[in-house]
Design goal:
mainly alpha, three-stranded antiparallel β-sheet, 3 strands, 62% helix, 285 residues, 2 domains, Arc Repressor Mutant, subunit A, Four Helix Bundle (Hemerythrin (Met), subunit A), 15 helices, single chain, elongated
Length: 285
């Protein structure tokens, strides 16, 4: 890479939008747990920027309800309540059943093959224990189906709901588990491919209900080292070249992931070492 290219990548990676994408990816891949404190000073060190871009990035994430900004306390990864779990999945059922109906009525039927390829990658991520990719792809199944409808307003609504669902799963699910089943996704896709709107709607409804019921009341615990979450600064710029914000921070997440500490957790839990944390990671069930 030339000096000019390096400077361009460096400039782009320091923009608030790029920073927000990397923080969003860490949240959605369960490398930052609900309640984790996002310290401005540490984020400035990680991304090699001043406070301005960091504050703009956090404000963007707060608009998406992925981050809570608290006066005199700072920024925290959002911690959804059980009531919000029910509300989010109620809205998802309304929207995603509409998605199924529109697809079966001819919107995007020809492009279903690409969804099948995504489910294949989701299965492979599970089999290779690539937890971060598995979690990301399980959400993208739903958002990519919505894309087939061509309705941008519907897609924007569902993108936000799926992001919040992933955050909720980080709060209520064990690390290394995804409440979303790729086997369910395969069954839904088969019904859509057959044009069976009734069966596809029934499968989607049961799938979303199952996902909601798997959200166990088991808040995540542990300390968050933002340097480790986002990687060493020396490799951060080169790692940004030629990749999206979501995929850019996923490498090695299953082995090096750190869960953030929820507000209200005991000080001893917040100071737990990475070595102790690694012993508590669970395999997918």
């Amino acid at each position: 890479m030339s000096d000019i290219d390096t400077e361009s990548v460096s400039a782009n990676s320091s923009k608030p939008e790029a920073i927000a994408e990397r923080i969003r990816a860490a949240i959605l891949e369960h490398r930052l747990a609900p309640g984790a404190k996002l310290t401005e000073a540490q984020l400035c060190e990680v991304f090699a920027v001043k406070r301005g871009p960091i504050r703009q990035a956090l404000a963007q994430l707060a608009t998406d309800r992925l981050v809570d900004l608290e006066p005199n306390r700072g920024a925290f990864v959002a911690s959804p309540s059980l009531q919000e779990v029910h509300e989010v999945f109620e809205m998802r059922r309304i929207i995603e059943l509409a998605v199924v109906e529109k697809i079966c009525n001819g919107h995007g039927m020809r492009r279903l093959k690409s969804i099948g390829g995504m489910i294949g990658r989701e299965r492979k991520a599970f089999e290779t224990r690539d937890f971060s990719s598995w979690i990301r792809l399980s959400g993208e199944f739903h958002t990519e189906l919505a894309q087939l409808t061509g309705n941008t307003v519907l897609c924007d609504c569902l993108n936000g709901l799926v992001a919040r669902s992933t955050l909720i799963s980080a709060l209520y699910e064990s690390l290394g588990r995804s409440p979303c089943s790729f086997e369910d996704h395969e069954a839904i896709l088969a019904a859509l491919d057959a044009g069976d709107a009734k069966e596809a709607a029934a499968l989607m409804s049961r799938h979303l209900q199952s996902v909601e019921l798997k959200m166990l009341e088991r808040p995540a615990r542990g300390a968050a080292d933002l340097h480790e979450v986002f990687g060493a600064l020396s490799g951060g710029i080169s790692g940004m070249s030629g990749m999206s914000g979501i995929s850019g921070a996923s490498s090695g997440a299953s082995s090096g992931a750190m869960s953030g500490a929820p507000r209200g957790a005991a000080k001893a839990s917040r100071e737990e070492s990475p070595k102790a944390l690694s012993k508590r990671k669970s395999a997918p069930s």
